[in-house]
Amino acid sequence: MQTYQNGFNPFSQNIAIVKSYFKKPTVLTQGILYAISAVLTIVSGFIMSPVLNNYFSVIMKMPGFTDGMSPSELEFFTTFMNVYIDIVPIAAIVPSVIISAITAAAFILIYNKSKNADPASTPKSGIVTLFVLSIVQLVPIIMLSVMLVLAIILLAVAAIAASGTPESGILWVVTAVYTLVFGTMIALLLMYYINQVRYYNSIRKSLTTINLTYKGAGIFGVFSIIYGVYMVMNAFSVFSIKPMMQFMAELAPEMEFIAGLFDSFTPLFIVSTVASVLSAAIMILNGVIALGYKKHIRSFTEGYSEFGIDNSVAPQPVSVPVYSAPVSNEPAQPVAPVQTNEPQFEPVIFNEGQAVTQATHCPRCGTPVKNDDVFCKACGTKL
User: pTM of this prediction?
Assistant: First the structure.
């Protein structure tokens, strides 16, 4: 490692700055909330299986549902649904439980490493874990965006091919809906998850380089809070399904059995609502932590760049006042000569009218010289 003057080490300084933020109780709280979310997901999986069994039993008892099926077809369908009911809950909860559990462990690890006063203890491993998870979450969104673009292109090509027919207008409407509705949703999700990756990557770089950065923290924080508020509003909407189905059953008596199915879904709705509210709290707290991290890092870097200059502020022109010397009617006073340390030389004055004779001998070595000699032939002295 490079040695710095006066024992200053920017790597150690940056680690200390990052640790001073992530040792806050909010980070530990976030880890605990993710752990509770993982437990609730497991509980919902155990509740989902009997609910689906009950739903399947009611469907099988519907009049005319099994009409037209041979005994072998009915046996295959029953076996398939039983396997489906056993597999679906597990397939639905396992990825979510794994991600929630790993995220909980990462936040708790970050908090413990940051609380440790030992300079060798850094939260790098926890941050890298969150960074990798954010990339894993981004991959399916990228795949969805690619599929959406392909679908829009195919719809547009089909609309152009059907030009001049009534189907062409319908295809253009469907293309516009896909582009505006689904395109906007995918774009927002991409913006959210891309900035999540940038946010955790900026923390990772702050721990491993001499640059403190908070890229992506602002957008990720704002979107997390907005998404959390939306989840809170949407969490209780499931309880409006049963009253709506009862109202439809009053209008159409044949719908009565469907309304009765939702009684068996009530435990699942309750657990799902609690899990949704908890997920909303996690999202909002993610936003608070991200925005707080940005504010924390800016308090150390605001107004400074790599060269110690704030490049975010454009240079302003500086007006220099011009002063004119005051005019006075008094006669100018003589100025005393400036005293210097340089040797003073008196001017050489030649007497006019006197003949200047040439020396006959070298003033240095005494060698005889002629009148027209410029230099002494013996020692080279200028005459």
Answer: 0.67
